[in-house]
Structures are given as C-alpha cells and as structure tokens.
Write a structure and sequence with these properties.
By secondary structure, this protein is of the alpha+beta class. Helices cover about 60% and strands about 15% of the residues. It folds into three domains: about 10-120 and about 125-145; about 170-235, SH3 type barrels (Roll); about 245-330, Alpha-Beta Plaits (2-Layer Sandwich). The protein contains twelve helices and eight strands. The strands form two sheets. The chain has a five-stranded antiparallel β-sheet with strand order 4-3-2-1-5. A three-stranded antiparallel β-sheet has the order 6-8-7, covered by helices on one side.
C-alpha cells in the first residue's frame, strides 16, 4: 500500500498532532509520576499548606498541559483565522474555568485548615467556605466574560439597580447571612463550642451556615437556629475563656457528724475521682464549702473540675457512687428528711379543756 499520498495529506497536520500528543503525554506523566511522588513526600511533612496546594492543583495541572498543547497545536495547524480564533476562545474558557476551580479548592482548604487550628473538633464553617467559593466563582465569571469580549459594565449596572429589589425580597435571608458573617468574624461562638441559649437549647456547635447554625444536643439530635436569632440571643459559651469547667455536687450529712472528718473523707474521694476518672483535671485540688443548716442535714458543695462540659456527667456519677460507699465505711450518715413532733398527753388536754 502506498502511504505517500496519506503522508502528504497529513503533512501539514503532523506538527500540530505531535504537539498535542506531547502535551497529553506530559500531562499524564505529571499526574502519574510527579503528583504521586509529591503526595508521598508531603504526607511526611507536618505542614498542611503543601497538602492543600497539591489537592487543589493536582487534578488541574495535567489539564493545563493538554490545554497548552492544544493552543500550540492550533497555531501550527492549517486552520483559517476565524476557526483558529474560535477554538482559542474555547481554550481560554477551559483555562479560566480550571483556574477558578483550583483557586476555589485552595482557598476552601485554607479556610478548613484555619478552622481546625482553633478548634480540633471542627472542620470549618459552611458559611465561610460558601462565601469564598462564591467570591472566586464571581471573579472567574467576570474574567471569563472579559476574555470573551463581553462588556461587564451593563451587567454591573443592572445588578446595582436590581439590588434594592433583591434585598427587599430576600430580607430575612440576607439578615441571616450577615448575622452569620458577624458570628464568624467576632469568634464569640465557634464550631466545636458547647453553648446554651436563653431559650433553653444547648449543645455543640457543629456548623455555622449562611442561613442557620446547627447545634448538636447531647441526646444526639440537631437544633437549627437562624443566625439572626442566634445573634440576638443571650448565650452561655462553656468553652470560653477555656474548656475547663467546675463540676459541683451538693451533699448533706447528719447534724451529729464530725465536720472535720467529713471534709477530710470527702476531699480524699474527690481527689481519687479527679485522678482516675476520664475527663477529670488531675492537678486540680478539690474543695468543699459548708453553707446551710437544713432541717435534717448540714449541706455543703463539693467543687471539682472537668476538662469540658460533657465530662461533668461522668465525674458526678463516679463521685456520688464512690462517696456513698466511702461514707458507709466511715459510718457517716447521709440523712433523709425527718421531723420531730412533740405531742400533748391526754390528761394535759383534759385539764385545759
């Protein structure tokens, strides 16, 4: 078979095909060899920045090689100027979209890493990630329109004129959005904090979204609180200024008890609980404070310390259980409510009658 006519027909296309094939091979090798090796190296480093950069760019660098090769092939191929210009526009669109996605992934990774730095149990807030993504996509759209030769001035003017109508129509939504931005910026409430609202709901903040904040209660259900309501609420944050919190237990002993001995035994049990119970602050020195002469007991408060709010339950459980057993051993009475009634005898009642 004579291949000279075929070779002659493909001759003008050979440089372009060679450029495109070389670019595809370079993109493939970059993904399979370079990025794979870099990922293994970055996994051994303590910094998260290199992982964020690689995650954001890893899927796009091979595509950039291919788009670059395709652009060079267009210049070498025997296309008409109009067709070449149209094809180059598609290349530009591909570059802008890919760079926009890569930049969005990089900035979202930075937001998550920044959130984890201040809260080990948190993965960031969806509000911050969505705002970053929206800003990057808006910038990418403007660049895309500009490169396509579409004037963005009329679009911006139309958006400015219509913004008032949009603001009125989405008043509640925008109120929640800006309240969420205020909550995130002020850092008075962060993802991972345990909070209690004046309305009674309490739990861990698991996400601050553009509309609502999600609070996970201890029974494992989730409460959705609109951001505007949260910003206006009176909030108790049990993780500020730090996570450690007092664990208080009310105890009562008989009026006949030796209070010095009661104090010594109670402190000994509290120290044991602090050392051996998960969530207890081992170095904290427990204390008791007598405060009430009640009808049937002398009441006092035992002060212990927990690493965070949820740890108080196990600490109180262990303390009450161990204190009850220790009081039995020591013969210390925990009285139940009782009253002494003095009555008159029958003869006294008759004489007065």
């Amino acid at each position: 078979m004579d291949i000279e006519p075929l070779t002659g027909a493909l001759g003008p296309w050979l440089p372009a095909l060679a450029m495109l094939a070389g670019a595809c091979a370079a993109g493939y090798l970059t993904r399979v060899v370079v990025i794979t090796r870099l990922r293994r190296i970055f996994e051994m480093t303590e910094s998260r920045l290199d992982d964020i950069v690689l995650d954001a760019l890893g899927a796009h660098v091979p595509l950039w090689f291919i788009l670059g090769g395709f652009s060079a092939a267009l210049e070498a191929a025997p296309f008409t100027e109009n067709l070449r210009a149209l094809a180059q526009k598609f290349v530009v669109i591909g570059f802008v979209v890919s760079i926009t996605l890569a930049l969005s992934g990089f900035l979202r990774g930075l937001v998550r890493a920044y959130a984890r730095r201040f809260s080990a149990s948190a993965g960031g807030t969806s509000l911050a990630e969505n705002l970053v993504r929206a800003a990057v996509f808006a910038l990418g759209a403007l660049l895309l329109l500009s490169n396509l030769g579409i004037s963005i001035a009329p679009i911006l003017t139309a958006l400015g004129v219509g913004s008032l109508a949009v603001a009125l129509a989405l008043q509640d939504t925008l109120s929640n959005l800006f309240s969420g931005i205020h909550i995130v910026a002020s850092r008075l409430v962060q993802v991972g904090d345990y909070i209690r609202l004046d309305s009674g709901q309490e739990g861990y903040v698991i996400d601050i979204g553009w509309r609502a904040t999600r609070i996970k209660e201890l029974p494992n259900n989730v409460v959705l609180v609109p951001n505007s309501k949260l910003a206006q609420s009176v909030i108790v944050n049990y993780h500020e200024p730090d996570k450690e919190i007092a664990a208080l237990v009310e105890v009562g002993v008989s009026h006949d008890s030796d209070l010095e001995r009661v104090e010594r035994v109670t402190i000994d049990v509290a120290r044991e609980v602090m050392r051996e119970t998960p969530g207890g602050v081992a170095g904290f020195e427990p204390a008791i404070r007598f405060h009430t002469f009640a009808d049937s007991s002398i009441n006092f408060t035992v002060v212990m310390r927990a690493r965070e709010f949820a740890d108080r339950f196990l600490i109180k459980h262990e303390f009450i259980k161990r204190l009850h057993g220790r009081y039995r051993q020591e013969g210390i009475e925990i009285p139940f409510p009782q009253r002494v009634v003095h009555g008159r005898n029958a003869e006294s009642v008759k004489s007065r009658a």
